[in-house]
What we know:
Layout: H1 2-35, H2 45-60, H3 66-71, H4 76-79, H5 84-93, H6 98-111, H7 117-131, H8 139-157, H9 167-178, H10 180-193, H11 205-212, H12 214-223, H13 226-243, H14 246-258, H15 263-283, H16 287-301, H17 307-316, H18 321-333, H19 340-348, H20 352-364, H21 368-371
Amino acid sequence: MPCLVNVKNDIYCGMNRGLMVVLSCVLIFAGYFAGRISKSGVVTTAAISDDVEDSRRTHRGRKLSKREYRESPAHPSNLRKEGGIEAGMAYVLDENDPVQRTLKIHQLLESINADNWQELVEGMIRSNGETGRNADYHLRAILIRIGQVDGQRALEEGVGIKTGKDARGELLYGWAMKDPHGAWAWAKRFNEENPDRKIGIYGSAFGGLTRTNPEMATRLLQEMPDEEWSMAIGGYIRNLIRSETLDRTDEWLEDVMASERPEALKRSAIWTISKTVGQTARNLRAPEKIAQWYDDFGQAADSEDRRMAVDFIHKSGQRDGANAAQLLDQFSKRSLILDENHLIQIRERMPKERRAEAHEWLVNNGQADLATWFTE
């Protein structure tokens, strides 16, 4: 008998809990439906599904939902319609919010293919001429995309866009990202056959190759004669850092230093990488890493006036004088001798408030002698 009572109580409690769950669901869905009624007053399951997907994508910063993208003027099917190219360009250029405009240009870029890029370029030129609105801000991305989808034809026939620099470099860069073998072979052949119209292939074709296939680029670089090697390392290093990290260039540089390349080329490679190291000095608080890089590589290529070291310290202090002081401290711990002239250069290039920050940090960290150089 007690068992029957317990069962009844359990059933009763379970029913209450079930009713509460059902009631909660009804209230939630009622509120949701009330807020999602369409203009026509009809709510469809498909509309709810799409709207939920839209809100989820918006919340997480993803692309448009499939429904929105299909309806977008940037969708390939809509670009093919009469007047579709102009509508696609207007879709981008009418957007004043810079973030939304960037999102829309990316939609448009995804829709560019070998069949429509010429018409899109013509539409962009017409839009520029008729409305005065300028799409040049997006031009590099458009040219790279054209290179990806139809690089060889675009290079051989031209794209009809006048730019401040050679558009062929961007086309070749895009082509090399998709077909590095074909782009590199075509560019080499083109330069041999057209000595008066050479393309800067080392920053474009070789750069695009490095971005997508750094292993192949590294092998090619090893096989290059010194003259070609010296022209290729700039594009190689910039894109190696983009595709991997600055640490990867250190591994490559160690191999270079152990190679039989002329000392002048080795120094050139170090100076090329030092430009990026200098940027990290400006943007990151990494004084130990920067000082170690200089100790490992930079000091061997730096001049007697310590131009590289002074530049590192100057850049590291542009936003925070304490950051420059920490780098100066790291250099002194590694027995890097900076004489009076070097310290004067550093001080004179630092704004007054940054000098005060550097002075305070050095005093508080046992570097009173160095701190005197940053007093008024």
